[in-house]
Amino acid sequence: MLDAVPTPSLTARQPHVPADRLLAELVPPRHFARESFDTYRPDPDHASQAQALARLREVAGTLSRPAGRSGWFGRRRSAQAPAVYLDGGFGVGKTHLLASLAREVGTDEAAFGTFVEYTNLVGALGFGPTVEQLGAKRLVCIDEFELDDPGDTVLMSRLLRELADRGVALAATSNTLPDSLGEGRFAAEDFLREIQALAGRFEVLRIDGEDHRHRAATTHAATVPAARLREVVAARADATTDDLGELLEHLSRVHPSRYGALLDGVGLVALTGVAPVDRQDVALRLVVLVDRLYDRDVPVVVEREGLTDAGLDLFTPEMLSGGYRKKYYRALSRLGALAAEGAALAADRSAA
């Protein structure tokens, strides 16, 4: 009987996202809704975490001071604007700290988004209007600054330069692979080289530590039997079901800036027909979708049938060792975490 009831599908959605919504959504994601400086717990074995926390509190205090004639919105505004880069590996709390900084300054005065969201914003609004909109903020936070796309990196470097010249404070993070040289310092050198016109303005805050999410264990996506997947989906009005291949084909017709809107009202995503992705453009679209799912804390139920290892088989070995590997490892980790939540829901009979 459950099979006779059609379930909603993401492929049936064609979201329209006005520019004002893109701007309004430049806030810390739902995943960090309850986080603040007070909820960040520095590891006592890594003093750099407490040092970064203390410095960001200072920055927040500077940006939160009332405006004066020659203060934040005065003539000397640009000389006072700080710029910080959080340098460290996976899972040391960089995004937690960045989101906390934005919240401390205030959602009206701070913009928070990923590198991809800002490049999508420029694509939707145009460069000039984006500068005008973001230039009215006190702080612009860029999470997961990407260093693997030359065109987008040049675009973002120019955007940051324009904003810094207007006196907007800047804060950025970037991820490195756990086995990267220096476990993060290499990324800082790359970042500063790519934004060389602004490098002298940025203060690098080194954050050492272990990955608190233990990402190595989450690259294996938990799966559930097909029958149980159908039961869980049928029990929830906010669930969708899609064949992964069909969904990825649909995403090719939806601008990445609309992937968030694609998930409006969705509380659970079920994926069937999960198979390895062998095209780079398709894989990168999947990465953006996983990021939006993770931002919104949407659990994912992955069908087990025909699948041996959803995590390690999703991207090819060439992809995992190529230029976009940071994105792919991040997607594997996040999908693994969301699939674990989905599997827990499937195992809990009370989910219905």
Structural commentary:
This protein has 352 residues and is of the alpha/beta class. The chain has 2 domains: 2-6 and 215-351, no CATH class; 34-206, Rossmann fold (3-Layer(aba) Sandwich). Helix content is 42%, strand content 11%. It has 14 helices and 8 strands. The strands form 2 sheets. A 5-stranded parallel sheet has the order 2-3-4-1-5, sandwiched between helices. Strand 3, helix 7 (150-165) and strand 4 (169-174) form a beta-alpha-beta unit. The chain is globular. The two termini are 16 Å apart. Residues 68-78, 178-184 and 214-218 have low confidence and may be disordered.
- Give me the side-by-side strand order of the main sheet: 2-3-4-1-5
Rounded radius of gyration (Å): 21 Å
Shape call: globular
How does the major sheet shape up? 5 strands, parallel
Structural class: alpha/beta
SSE topology string: HHHEHEHHEHEHEHEHHEHEHH
Q: Please report the number of helical segments.
A: 14
Strand tally:
8
> Which ranges are low-confidence, i.e. pLDDT below 50, for 5 or more consecutive residues?
68-78, 178-184, 214-218
Q: How helix-rich are the residues, as a percent range?
A: 40-55%
- Overall residue-averaged pLDDT value: 84
Can you identify the CATH superfamily of the largest domain?
A: P-loop containing nucleotide triphosphate hydrolases
Number of self-contained structural domains? 2
- Top-tier CATH class of the largest domain: Alpha Beta
| CATH architecture classification name of the largest domain | 3-Layer(aba) Sandwich
What is CATH's topology name of the largest domain?
A: Rossmann fold
